[in-house]
Amino acid sequence: MPKRIVLGLLVFVIAVGSALWLTSRAVTPQEASWDDVLAQAERGGYGVVTTDELWELYQTDPDLLLVDTRQEWEFAPGHMEGAVVFPMEPTWWARWSKKDDLRAVLGEDKERTVVFY
């Protein structure tokens, strides 16, 4: 009986350790060309704007939503006026667990222009 308990505990510890390791790994950025970025945006149904186009939107679109994806400690010392902070964590688990928070930040207006930076 004690051998079964020890084996069961060992399996449990390995399973929990593996789960923690898998869910806390950082997503390694892949090197991408500009063409890769454009193709991925098109596949997702997103548009890409240049800095000049963003400046024009910033000056003319009162409903523009700017989402700063840096950490709050990076956002606090300086950011674009009117931007909201929504840190994009480097793990898939963190991103998945914050999807409802992101939905709340974005709001219900599906036609609103949103820029993540």
Overview features:
117 residues; mainly alpha; three-stranded parallel beta sheet; elongated
Would you kindly provide a brief summary of this structure?
The chain has 117 residues and is mainly α. It has 6 helices and 3 strands.
**Sheet with the most strands: spatial strand order:** 2-1-3
Give the overall form: elongated
Rg result: 21 Å
> Helix/strand/pairing class, anyone?
mainly alpha
The separation of the N and C termini measures 58 Å
Strand content: 5-15%
What's the pLDDT, averaged over the residues?
87
Main sheet record: 3 strands, parallel
Low-confidence stretches: none
Helix and strand string, N-terminal first?
HHHEHEHHE
Helix content: 40-55%
User: In DSSP terms, counting alpha (H) and pi (I) runs of 4 or more, how many helices?
Assistant: 6
Total number of β-strand segments? Answer: 3
How is this structure best described in words?
This protein is mainly alpha-helical and 117 residues long. Helices cover 52% and strands 8% of the residues. It contains six helices and three strands. A three-stranded parallel sheet has the order 2-1-3, with no helix packed on it. It is elongated.
Question: What are the SSEs and their pairings?
Answer:
Blueprint: H1 2-23, H2 34-44, H3 51-60, E1 65-68, H4 72-75, E2 84-85, H5 92-97, H6 99-106, E3 114-116
Parallel strand pairs: 1-2, 1-3
